[in-house]
Specification:
Radius of gyration: 25 Å
Helix content: 10-25%
């Protein structure tokens, strides 16, 4: 029972007696991997219920949810790459690994410290129910159009197995490099893929029965994201420059141009279709899905670009228009000051679905709603308006329904289904919300807007607890990423739904919480997402965090002597920087797996180790990176801090926390630390997430409420 009471252990007796423990705030179910069968009305999704991750399915018209698998322990094994076969008889997925990692994502995740860790596996299970069949170690499974075979990646190569597990998996082919992007041809006879070879990447096609691979438009370039045409006679893919060239400036933002090519699958010859402008806005998009390239119906290519200042959807004719290949001008499908994410093509190729921060309410810039648009004209429609949040849309195979994830500021995310043309939708799995989940205690965050010292407009979400005009302690929350946006409700990322639950819990304890959408984040246009002098090039985003603290200091309901700060990953970096540079403003903080030295986190030192040439501003870049790091300002750090990290972190080296602990101890700064053995950056084990966020709340209570 110690874990249950960890989060109230240090509360004052009167407060502890009336508060719901953090564990209850973390009891929400969390759905991911929503997908639809290529035909019919069948949908499937994964759901995490207190660490027990399982596959659920439902079928129209009733869409009654049914749990298909029975994984019963909080073991940290995620479910990914979920799909339903074309005949609707099989559900296939990968189990295990860490798909949110920066490295070693395919290695076993073992937060339970088993002596024989579970290795990532490709699995199948009949739609009707039955036993999960592990087909092989591997990842990224794709079911064949005839529903009989599954191809997948194992050790960077392509393997195959019968979907029913009736025979052992076999290696389909070998090639140099690391293969990705598997996609069956429409007739199921060929397999499209990309292979990365250190400094370049090539698009290839495997044909059943052939003794050799065929390469598509190979060049000294980085080719990726290939897609078939509807008849399989051509493919489309993205091209960027290969690795190399004369070193350029490191301290200023530079364009990252890209282009779209069409290749003939018989000859392998490739021709330019479209090329981005050589401007910052023309750079390859760094939001969800990158270019989100699709070959749609009507010989139409669709893609996402930041070229007008927002991540918008565009279309272009595959033949390049009357002027020939490379001369056609793309059609902007989604005009307006908002972004498109989670983009899917309808089964018939006629529509694009996405989630977007737009609608009839000005506050929608901090929400997500489902948007549908034709692939060839700008007739977009927000189909889920209101004050809720909706994301990850898919259209059912019969083209009659849209399924998505739905939430409100109070109700946690759940799958939902609506008929196309309807204004109402049905939320599924409401009975999976536990009775002791404190939904009635959830506060609706309020939008706050303020200016940084350099005039940058910053948005934030304010969690203001009840209690009248009495001055209360306050906490600034810094998200990670940094390309993220905190929302006016539950988040489409499991990591940031953890943070949302934590912010709600802190508010229930009497803290004012301000979740800051600082520059470098998404949702507010290109210039906000890619500001100058940010990160290792100057940490200009810290101006927004400091401005948030100063905004709180000006509020009549805030105790100016009790302002804290916390965050994870990039938010941990900003927390440490705030405490190091502004301990007089931020009286205490909690740093989850933060970056503390940009020189060791980035490749600045190693990038030119074996080169005579150096970037023209190399020495300046090194100095700027150091002066953008919390470690550079430890001499001014006086506020107490709690440092937390998992020692199997695959996003930020655990050495950052070790190094900071040593520096703080030498200087005599009061600190506490918590290392979570064998868990990762994402807190894959539910009970570990309960433990660390509960510990953060305890820390602030002890510093500000005793």
């Amino acid at each position: 029972m110690r874990k249950l009471f960890w989060s109230i252990l240090f509360l004052p007796v009167s407060l502890a007696a009336q508060q719901t423990p953090f564990q209850n705030f973390k009891k929400y179910p969390y759905p991911t991997e929503l997908t639809a069968a290529p035909a019919g009305q069948r949908i499937a999704w994964a759901m995490d219920e207190e660490g027990r991750r399982n596959v659920y399915v439902a079928e129209g018209p009733e869409y009654t949810p049914r749990k298909l698998t029975d994984f019963s322990s909080d073991d940290g094994q995620e479910i990914s790459a979920l799909s339903v076969s074309a005949d609707g008889k099989w559900v296939v997925f990968a189990r295990g690994g860490d798909h949110g990692s920066n490295w070693d994502g395919g290695l076993p995740v073992d937060p339970t410290s088993d002596i024989q860790p579970f290795k990532m596996q490709v699995a199948s299970i009949p739609w009707a129910g039955g036993t999960v069949k592990y087909l092989s170690e591997g990842d990224a499974p794709v079911i064949s159009p005839d529903s009989r075979q599954v191809v997948f990646i194992k050790n960077g190569q392509v393997w195959t197995a019968p979907v029913d597990g009736g025979a052992a998996a076999t290696n389909l082919f070998n090639t140099r490099g690391t293969v990705s992007g598997l996609q069956w041809s429409p007739d199921g006879g060929r397999l499209l893929f990309a292979v990365a070879r250190t400094d370049h990447s090539i698009i290839g096609i495997y044909t059943a029965g052939s003794s050799s691979l065929k390469w598509m438009g190979a060049a000294f370039a980085w080719d990726f994201l290939p897609q078939w045409s509807g008849d399989g006679s051509r493919i489309v893919f993205v091209r960027r420059a290969g690795v190399g060239g004369a070193p350029d400036s490191l301290t200023v933002n530079r364009p990252v141009p890209w282009s779209i090519y069409i290749a003939d699958t018989v000859t392998g010859a490739a021709r330019l279709l479209w090329k981005s402008s050589a401007t910052l806005r023309g750079s390859y998009p760094s939001t969800d899905g990158g270019s989100n390239l699709h070959w749609a119906a009507g010989n139409t290519i669709t893609f996402l670009s930041y070229q007008d200042g927002w991540p918008h959807l565009y279309s272009i004719n595959a033949d390049g228009g009357q002027g020939g290949i490379g001369t056609a001008k793309p059609v902007l499908l989604t005009p307006g000051n908002f972004m498109c994410e989670h983009i899917k093509l309808s089964p018939d190729g006629r529509f694009l679905l996405c989630s977007a921060n737009t609608g009839g309410d000005a506050l929608d810039i901090e929400r997500r709603h489902i948007l549908v648009v034709s692939v060839d004209k700008p007739n977009m429609q927000v189909v889920t308006p209101g004050n809720g949040l909706e994301w990850a849309p898919v259209m059912t195979g019969d083209g009659k329904n849209v399924a998505f994830i739905s939430a409100t500021p109070q109700r946690p995310p759940l799958p939902a289904v609506m008929q196309l043309g309807s204004k109402e939708f049905t939320v599924l799995c409401k009975d999976r919300i536990p009775a002791d989940f404190p939904m009635g205690k959830m506060i609706e965050p309020k939008q706050v807007i303020f200016k940084s010292a350099d005039g940058t407009i910053v948005h934030a979400d304010l969690f203001e607890p009840p209690g009248g005009v009495a001055r209360k302690p306050a906490i600034v929350y810094c998200h990670g990423g940094p390309p993220r946006e905190m929302l006016l409700g539950w988040h489409y990322s499991a990591y940031y739904s953890n943070a949302y639950a934590s912010n709600q819990y802190l508010a229930s304890l009497g803290f004012v919480v301000l979740a800051v959408n600082y520059r470098l984040g998404i949702g507010y246009g290109y210039e906000f997402h890619h500001p100058p002098h940010a990160g290792a090039a100057g940490a200009s985003e810290y101006l927004d965090i400091r401005a948030a603290g100063l905004w709180l200091r000006r509020q009549s309901f805030v105790d100016t002597a009790r302002i804290g700060i916390y965050g994870g990953s990039y938010g941990g970096f900003l927390t440490a920087l705030a405490l190091a540079k502004d301990s007089k403003l931020f009286a205490a903080g909690v740093d989850f797996h933060g970056v503390h030295d940009w020189l060791t986190q980035s490749s600045l030192i190693t990038a030119f180790r074996d080169r005579y040439e150096k970037a023209p501003d190399y020495d300046l870049a090194l100095k700027t990176a150091w002066l953008s790091s919390p470690d550079a300002y430890v001499s001014g750090w006086t506020s107490p801090v709690l440092i937390i990290q998992g020692d199997d972190d695959r996003n930020v080296r655990v050495s950052h926390s070790i190094d900071l602990v040593n520096r703080l101890e030498k200087k005599g700064v009061p600190f506490e630390s918590m290392i979570i053995v064998d868990d990762t950056h994402e807190w894959m084990k539910w009970s570990n997430a309960v433990k660390v966020y509960g510990a953060a709340a305890d820390f602030f209570v002890r510093k500000f409420m005793r």
